[in-house]
Amino acid sequence: MNTDQQTWQDWVGRTEERRDLVTPAPLAGLAALLDIDDNNPLSGFEAPLLSHWLYFAPLARQSEIGEDGHPKRGGFLPPITLPRRMWAGGRLQFHKPVRVDDEIRRLSRIQSVSAKSGRSGGLAFVTVHHEVSGSDGLAISEEQDIVYREAPPADGPVPASQPPSARDDETFSRTIVPDPVLLFRYSAVTFNGHRIHYDRPYATQVERYPGLVVHGPLIATLLLDLVRRERPDARVRRFEFRAVSPLFDTHPFTVCGRWESDQRVGLWARNPAGSLAMQASADIS
How many CB atoms lie within 10 A of CB 214? Predict the structure, then answer.
């Protein structure tokens, strides 16, 4: 373990508390983005699953923003210098609804920090545990995985990834066209300044992606929205997702589902080449 990695371990166990108010405007914005009719959420309205990601925004001052559009390294998250940062996956339990006008509290703890090597170079993984509580007590338990990667070589080809093939036995699905407006609107409603989602010159020339990157949380939200469209009365109790390969605004992609039992649904996102972009599942009651 090198000195940097030893320093990262000092962050394990670090906690942070944030408070927010569930206001209706972000929920209306998300509904508009998802092309659904919940555009006038009144007091007591049950917020859709994963909409807690619209709140607790990291409101860093402009002088504290790094080149990538994120807050500069350090603070609550460890000061990992690997430049590429992505939301790699998560596991959530939904205990109670979150409603409009609720005062909510999120208690976060750095659960683990680890370093690995991959085909593209060094990697670092940070897992953060969140507990979101409202007026009725604990509402959501969540583990969030963040991955940091090395920058692509400046004078050579970007290492090609070979994601596994996605399954093709879905029984319900939806095609998503991830145009720049969709990505910008999601960045706006989540106050996400990460430039790979809206700044094409930065995404393609600095981080050397083939296009704007579709947000991992947006893909996860579209997967759960697919369940809502298929079974509007279903009550999701658990949801987990894992990003496998990135999606870009250059091509449509498909969100897919198949019921594995009355209480469990398999979910995945598939790119136009048939490769797996995100794997997920939800438990229903």
Answer: 25
Looking at residue 158, its pLDDT comes to 62
What domains does the chain contain, in order, with CATH numbers?
3-284 (3.10.129.10)
What is the distance between the alpha carbons of residues 55 and 26, in angstroms, rounded to a whole number?
A: 8
| 216-230 vs 24-34: helix crossing angle, rounded to 10 | 80
CA distances from 74 to 8, 14, 51, 179 (A): 10, 12, 26, 33
Please give the Cα distance from 183 to 174 (Å, whole number). 17
Structure-token match 């990538």, residue found: 68
pTM of the predicted protein model? 0.92
Q: Are 47 and 38 in contact (CB under 8 A)?
A: no
Q: Which two tokens stand for residue 119?
A: 């085909």
pLDDT tens profile 1-49: 455 666 778 889 999 999 999 999 999 999 999 998 876 788 888 999 9
The residue behind tokens 């649904």 is 265
- Residue 57 near residue 141, CB atoms below 8 Å: no
β-strand partners of 94: 140
120-125 contacts: CB < 8 A, separation 24 or more? 120/149, 120/150, 120/152, 120/159, 120/161, 121/149, 121/150, 122/82, 122/149, 122/150, 123/82, 123/147, 123/148, 123/149, 123/150, 124/8, 124/80, 124/82, 124/148, 125/88
